[in-house]
Amino acid sequence: MAYNIELADRIREYLAKIPNLNIAEKKMFGGLAFLVDDKMCVNVSGENLMLRYNPDLEEQVSRKVGFLPMIMKGKQMDGFCYVEPEGFRKAKDFNYWMKISLDFNKIAAKSKMK
């Protein structure tokens, strides 16, 4: 699946403004993932954002415009979601999603290497 290159550039620009972040890019989930401190933080999936957030924010996050739950193998993945373009078109909305993803990244566990 192709991913939105302009959205990827927007994420790069946002992350570049934050000092001392260990950022890597990796093709995964059919898109382009941005790993912070070796943990998947945010992903460009087609035209959508895909991100991790603190599952304690589920009620708040699920009410946001553009929110879509992430479903894998028929099960909703707690703390993961997609955000459609209308949910991050405005800078303040984009910043909201990036912030909650980066905030959770600080406490998220690293995935086990296979």
Describe the structure.
There is one protein chain. This protein is an alpha+beta fold and 114 residues long. The chain is built from three helices and six strands; from the N terminus they run αββββαββα. It has a six-stranded antiparallel beta sheet. The chain is globular, with a radius of gyration of 13 Å. It has one domain: Aspartate Aminotransferase, domain 1 (Alpha-Beta Complex), CATH 3.90.1150. The model has no long low-confidence stretch (mean pLDDT 93).
Indicate the low-confidence ranges by residue numbers: none
What is the CATH domain class?
Alpha Beta
> What is the CA-based Rg, rounded?
13 Å
CATH topology: the name is Aspartate Aminotransferase, domain 1
Total of DSSP H or I helical runs spanning 4+ residues: 3
